[in-house]
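Budget justification, computational time. The allocation requested in the original proposal was used primarily to generate C-alpha cells for proteins on the priority list. As evidence of use, we reproduce two of the resulting records. The first is shown immediately below.
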Amino acid sequence: MDEGSELSLTIAHIVQRLKGSHLHSQIERRAKECLHQPDIKLDSLKEDVRSFLKTSGWERQLQNAVYRELQVQLPPSHPAAPPEHLKEPLAYMRAAQVSLSLLISVTPHSLSLSLSLSLYDFRDIDPVVVVVVVVCFLSPRYHGIRSQVVLNVCVCVCVLSLTQAGWEKRVLKSLNSMSTELGVPLARMRPAAEQKELANKWNEMGTDEPDLTSVRPVYAPKDFLEVLVSLRNPNHDSSEDVSVRSHWGLIQVPLNVRDIPQLRRAYSELNLTSGQLGIDDHAHIHPDLFENEYVQIGKKVVMEQDSAAAQQYSRQGCSTGLRADLWALILNSNNQPQDVMHYEQLTAGVIQHDLLVDNLIYKDVKLTASNDDYYFVFEDFLYQVLLCFSRDTAVLEHFKYNSATPPRSFVQGKGGEEECAVVYPPNGVIPFHGFSMYVAPLCFLYNEPSKLYSVFREMYIRYFFRLHSISSSPSGIVSLCLQFERLLQTHLPQLFYHLRQIGAQPLRIAFKWMVRAFSGYLSTDQLLLLWDRILGYDSLEVVAVLAAAVFAFRAENLMEVTSLGSAEAVLADLSTLKVMPLIQIFLFAMAI
C-alpha cells in the first residue's frame, strides 16, 4: 500500500469514527445555529461557518479529537479486511500458524521446525493467509537466508498469539473455578434492600466491604512472568552453545528492541543539556534559570487547549499545578456533561448488579493500595472507579488493537450455545493482583470521580493494557522485558552474569516494577514525573530504561550479593530514588 492510499484510509477511518461521536453532533448543531447570525453571508457561507467554528473553539476541539484518534487508531488496512485482521500482527496471524506448519513440511527448504498440529483449530484457517504464505515461501526471492528470517518473524508472532490465547483460557478457568468453589455466581441482581444500602454508602465503601477471606487474586505478576519465560520460537535455536550474552536472559523471543544509540535519538529531549522538571526545578537551582519560564509555557499550552502541544511539553515534565490539566488535554479527556452522565450510568449499574470480579477488586485494593502509605486515603475513590470500570463496555473498543480477546461466559443454563455467550466482565478485563495501582497515583491529580474515571480509562486503553497482554508491540510487556535484559547485558555484562550465576535473574526482580509501571514502588512525585514521559513520548519504553538504570545505580552493592534474597533486599526500597537523573545518566552519560 503506497503512502497516498495509507493516508486516504487513515482519513476515512478517522472520519468514520468521529461521525458517530457526540462532538460531531455538537459541531453540526453549532454550525446550523450560526446560520442565523447576520455576519454569515450566503456567498461566503463555507468560509464564514469555518471562521465561526474556529473563533468559538470548536475547531480546536475537533483537532484534539483527531489527534486522539491518531494515537489509538489501527494501522492502515484494506477496507474489506475482517475485524480479526485489524488487530496487532500476532493476533491476526493466529490462523497463519497452522498454515505455516502445513506449508513448511512440503517446501524444499530444510528448516527445523517441529509443531504439534493438535494445538490448532483448522476451522480458523483463512484461505487468504494460506495463499499469501504460499506465495512468499515458494517464490525464489525468499529462498535461503531471507526465507529463514521471514519465517522466524512469522513463527515468533504466531507463538506469541498462541501463548496469549492459552493464558486467557487459564485466567478464565481460574475465575470459573473460584465461582464454583465459593458458590457465588459470576453475576446477580442485587435485592432492593441491598441496592439501597450500597447507594447510601457509595462514598464510604471502604468501611464495609464483604468477607474476602476465601477470595484470592486470579493471578499475580509472578504467574504472568512464568508464562512469558516459557515463550519460545520453535524455529529459533536457543541452546546454550550457539551464542553468548543474547541467551543469558529469561526472554527468548527474538523481537526488535531499541539499543542505547536508538534510544538517545528517540528521547533526545531528555539529554543532559535540556532542562527537565525533576532535575532543574530543585531548590538549589534558581527558578529563573528554567522553572519559571517553563511553567509559563505550560500555562499557555493549557490556555490554547492543544493536545499535540501538551504532549510535546510533557516530554520535559509537567509542573504540579498544571499536570492534571495537561494530562487530560493529552488524553482528550474533557469530562463533558455526557461523560459525567456515562459515569453515573455505570454507578447505577454497580448498585443494581453484583459481579464476582467485584470481590477481586475489593481484595486487590485491600492487599495493595490500602497498605500503601501514599494511597490508603484514596480507598473509596479506588472502589468507585474500578467497580465502574468493570461495567464499562466502552473499554471493549481497545480489543480492536489489543492482542488479547475479551473473556466470554454463558448465560446460566445455556452453556455451550454460542448465541448465549456474553463478555464477562462487561469491560472484558479481569483484574489481577496490583491492578488497582494503575488508578491510585491519578487520585493525587483528580478529586472529582467522573474526571478521575475518564482519565484512568483513557490511560488504560492507551498504555496499561499492554503491561498484561502478550504481544509484539514495542510498548508491550514482552518487548519491555527483552529491552531491559538487552540493556543490562550490553552495558553491564559483569553484573548481569553475576546475578545469573547466583540464581538472581534481574528480570525476576524488575518484572513487578514494570508490570505496574513502577506504581507503588517510587514515591508519588517521582512516579508522576515518569508517567509525564510515558504520555509525552506515547510509549512505555522509558519504563524498561528506568528498570535498567536502577540496576546500574545499585550495581556496586549488587556485585556483592550471593543470593536472590540478598539481591531483592538491595532493591527493596525505591522510594528515595530520583527518576530523571537516573534515566538521563543511563541514556546519555554511559559510555557505549
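The second record produced under the same allocation is shown here.
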Amino acid sequence: MNALAQLVITGMWIASTGAVQTKSFSVVTVVQNHFAETTMKSEVLNDKNTTEQVKFHIMLPKEAFISGFRITIDGKTYEAAVQEKAAAKREFNRARERGQTAGLVETREKAEKIFSTDVNVGAYTTVTFELVYQQILRSLGSRYTEKIILFGDSLSELLTVEVYIQELSAIINLDVPPILLNDGGGSIDAGSTAHVDGNTARVSFAGNNALTNPALARGGGVFSVSYELEKRHTSADVIVDNGYFMYFGPDIPIRPKRLIFCLDDSGSMVGQKMQQVKEAMYNILDKLLPEDKIGVMKFSTSTRSWSDSLRNATQDNIRSAKSFVQGPDEENYTEIWKALRRAIQIMSAEDDELNQDKNTEDSMIILLSDGQGSLSPEILLNNVNKMNRKRYTIHTISFGNGADDQMLKQIARDNHGRWKKILSDLDAALQIENYIDELKSGSNSSLVDYIKYPEVVEEVVKVKNTGELLTIGRLRDDLSSYKEGPHEIVFDSDGALQQSTAITASFYLDQAAKMENKRIDRFVQKAFAMTKITKILDDIHLTNDPGEKALLKQKAINMSLEFNLVTPVTSLLVIKPDDHKGSSNSTQQPVLDTSETEAPASTTQPSAPASAARPLWSFHGDPHFIARLTQDITVCFSWVGRPNEIVSLLYDYDNSIIINGLITGTGQDQTLTARLFVTKMAIILPEEDVRLQIDCDTISISNLNPSDPGAYSLNVSLRETDRRSYEFGILKIHISEIVQHHIIINLRIRKLLFVVEVQYNNGGPNSRDHLDFIVPNYTSERVGGVFGHLQLTDDGDDKARIVTDEKRSKTFLLYNGDEIEVRRSSMKFPYLSERVNCWLAEGQLQHLFGARLGSFKLNSLWDIPNRE
C-alpha cells in the first residue's frame, strides 16, 4: 500500500512600490531518480521613470535548496554568487544605497522554508529573473506527489508549467487531479496534458484558460502531479556519477503505527492558525494505512477526544476523524498536561488490554500547541515523565511565536521524541504535514543499518523514507588501487523483512548515470551535499555546546559555498555593475571570498582573515599540523619522527589537562621518512585522577582514586556504538557523528572543547586507521607540549610576522625571534570540508618551537611531562 510524499514547486508572488508589470512566468521541473531541479523564470517590466524595488516571496519545501539566481538586463546576464550570509547582506545594502540593480536570496532565520528576494529594477527596464532550486523526493510507499502552489492575480494567465520525470522503475498510475482552490471554493479542472512512456513522463499546464483564470485570481490554488513506481521487492539499484552514488534498496513494508494527535484549539489558535492545522490534518489522515491505529483530540481548558480508544484508520473512521477535526473549537485557555495525560491513558489502555507493550518507536503522541500551559514547566515535565516512563514517543510542535519552546522541546527530549518550531506562515499547513510525514518515516530508518558497503565507499548519508531504502554516498578520493568492478552493496535484513536471502546491487567505478532528453548535471553529488548539509544544520540545533555549534556552523558554510547552495548560513547575491563614471567599482562583480583563496605573494600576512570558528590547533592524517599564530597567519607542517613514538601534544598547567599521542607507521618502515599517524591518545586530568584513552576502536574512561565514592570506569566500543553522550563531573563526551568511515567525538573538559575524529583506513597500503584532533580555541596562557609552543597572539604583536627576502627570493616566518623559511600552501581540513591556506614550514621546526623535537617525546602514554 502506498502513502504520499511531496515535491512542492511553489509559486512566487510579487510586491512592489510602483506599477511593475509581470510579462511572463514559467516553471520547469526535471525529476531524475528522485532528485528534482526546478527553474522558475519571470520577466518583469518597470515602465516608470524611477527605480522600483520588487520583492519576491518563494515558498519551498524544507528539503529544498536554492542553487542559482540570475538577472538578465538588456541581453546581459548577471550570475549570483553564494556568500556567507552576513557578508552578502552588507554587500547588497551597499549596492542598494548606490542605486544599483541588485538581488539577494536568503532564508529567514525562523522559517527555514520561506525564501525572499529583494530586487531593485531600474527605470524603463525589462528584467528577467531566473531562480533554480533542488530537492530530493521522499517517498512514502512507492508514490510521489508534486504540488505546485499558484499565486497572484496576473500569474494565472501567464503561468506555464512543464514537468519531466525519469525514474529507474516504471512509472504507473500517473494522475493530474483538478486544481484545489485555496479560497475553499472546491476545485477546477487543470486542463493539463500528461504522457507516460515506461519510466519517463511529461506533464504540461498553461494558465491561459477561461475557467482557471478567475478562480486562481481569487486566492490561488494547488496544482498536483501524482505518480506511483512499480514495486521492487527483491531487487536494488545503484547509480554512480562523478565519484558519488545513490543506492535504491528494495521496497520495505511499512509497519503499522499507533498515533495520537493532540491539537491545541485554545483562543490564541483562532483564525488562520487553526485553519492551517485542520488543512494539514486532512492530508495527514488521508495518508494513513488501514492497519494504523489513531486517536485525535483537541485541547484547551478541557480535552475532547474523537474516540476513547484507538481505532483503525479505515475509510469510515478517517471520515469521522475529519469531521471531529473540522468541528467547533473551544477557544479557551491552554492545558497541555491534561491533553498528554489523556493521550497516555488511551495508549496505555490498549496495552493493558492486550497485556503487552508496543514498540515505542511505532507508538507516537504528537502534540501541537501555540501556548504556555497553566502548570509551571517543572511540574508539567515531572508529571509527563512520571506517567509516561518513556514508554511512548512524544513529539511536540511549537506553532507560532507564543509557544513555550523550551518546555515543548524538553518534553520531546525526555520521551524519545523530536521538537519542531513552525511559524504561522502561508505554508504552515504544508510544514506541519511534511514534519509529521518525517516523524512517521523514522520507524523504518533503522533498516539502513542492514546495508553493507564495499571498501571503495568513503562516506554514506541516510535519506529518511518509509517505502524504500535510499542512501547517498561518496566514493574514496583515491581509487587507483581498486578494480573497476563489480563492487557490491548488500542488504541483508537478517530476518527483519520477509525475504530470506540477501539482496545485492552491483556497480562499476566508471559507471555513469544516464538520462534521456533532460539531464541534471552532477545530481548525485548535489543530492549528497544537500543531505549532508541538512544533517549538519540539524546537529547545530541538537547540541547545546557553543564551541561545537560554531564548528558545525563553519562546516555548513564551507559545504554550502563549495556546492553553491543557499542555506540558513549563506545567501545568493547578484549586483549589476554601476555604469556611472568615477565609481571605483564600475565594472566589478561581487567577489566571492572563501577559504579556497590562495595565500598572496606579499611581504605581509595573507589578506583573508581567519574565520572566528576556524580551529586554533589541529592535526590530521599523516600528521599534518595546523596552528593559528595570529588571526591572519596560519602555519602548517608535517611531523618528523619515527614510528611508535609518544609525543606530548598539550600540557595545560592552569586547567590541569595533559594530552599525549602515540604516533604509528603503516608497516615495517622505521625511518624518519615513514608515513606516520596518531593512532592513540591519552587525556589525563591529574586533579581528578581521571584517565581517558581513545583509539580507533574504544574509548576508555576511569577514575583511579580509590577513596572517591564516585569512582567509575567505562569502555565504549566505537565500532558498535551510536550517537550518545556521557557525563562524568567536569568531563562530557558526546559521540556526535557516525558514518561509513569516521566517527566524531566531542570532549568538553571544564569549559574547553576538544574534537577527536576517528578515521578508518581507506584500504590503501600507505594509510591506516588513525585519529584527527581539533582544538577550536584556547584561553590558557601557561601551556606546554607541541601545541603549547604555537600560541595565538595579537596581530599587532611582532611575535609573528611574514617577511620576504627579495634578493634570495624566499619568504620567512619571524616567530619568537627565530627565522623559519616558509612557502604559501594549503592543507585539506576534513572536519570543516575545506582547504586551509597556510604558510608551510618544511624544515627548521626546532626554530618554530624554540625547542628540539626530541624534547616533546615521552616514554609512556600516561607520562606527565616536565613543566617547561
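A brief technical remark on that second record: The mean pLDDT is 78.
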